[in-house]
Amino acid sequence: MSVELAEKTTHKVHVSAPAGVVYALFADAVNWPLYFSPSVHVERLEFDGERERLRTWCFMDGQLKSWTSWRHLDPVNRRVEFRQELPASPLSSLGGIVNVRPEGPHSSELELLYGFSVVDHLPADLAWAERAADGHSRSQLAGLKAVAERWERLDELVLTFEESVHVNGPAELVYDFLYRAGDWPDMVPHVTRVDLTEDEPGVQRMTMETLTEYGTHTTDSVRICFPHAERIIHKQTTTPALLQAHTGEWSVVPEERGVSVIAQHTVVLREENIAAEL
Fold first, then answer.
1. Whether residues 83 and 175 fall in one domain
2. Mean pLDDT, range 83-111, rounded to an integer
C-alpha cells in the first residue's frame, strides 16, 4: 500500500522512550482504547503479517464516528502507512504515514503526516474535518507519548480480569438480556437507573446508576454490539480518579447444555492517583 499526500499536515512529538517501544504501541491498534481517550473500540478484520484491515469506533470533535481502514506495518523502518477504506462522513478520503525515529537509546521522535478530502468540498464540512483531524491527531500523539514514557511500569498499571457464569438457557435470550440494558432497573436489583440511546444500530450510549456499599455510583459508557457473534464491547467515557481507562466485553459462549456468559474487564490505573485513592 502506498499513501500519497498531496496536501498534508505534519505533527511531531518527542518521546522519552525507545523507538521500538513507541512503534510497538502505535502498531498495536487493538489496544488503542486503553491508551487513547477518544478511541472506543478497534476490531481487526484481516491481517497477513504486514497488512491489516481495521474497523474503528472513535470520538472525533465530540462525535462518535466509525470507519474501516487499511494499514501497512513496517517494523524494520518503524513506519506505518494507513488509508481509510470507508471514511466517516463528511470525509471522502483520509490517509497518512507514521514514522518513529530513534534519537538515542531511550528517546525517539514520533512523526504523523496525514491528508484528507471532504465530500463536495463544503466549507462547513472542511472546517469540521480540519478541526476534528487536528484534535484527534494531537490527542493520539499525546496519549501515545504518555503511555510510552511509562513503558517500564506498564505491566503493573494495566490489569485484566474476568468472571463467568453458566446459564442453562438459549444463547439468544441471554444475549438479548445483555443487549436490553435499558430494562435492567426492572430486573437487576442494584441497578437503579439506565438512560440508553441507540441512534445507530448496535451502537449504544449509556448512563447507568448503581447502588454499592459506598453509595450511588454513576457510569457513562459506549457499547458496541455484535449480535451475530453474541458479543458486546463497552468502554467508560468518564472514569473515576483511580482509572485512566476501563474497557470490557460481554460474550455469550454456547456449550453442550446452555451457555457460558463471560464478563471481561481491562483497566489502566492512573499512576499519579494511586497513593491518594488507596
1. no
2. 93
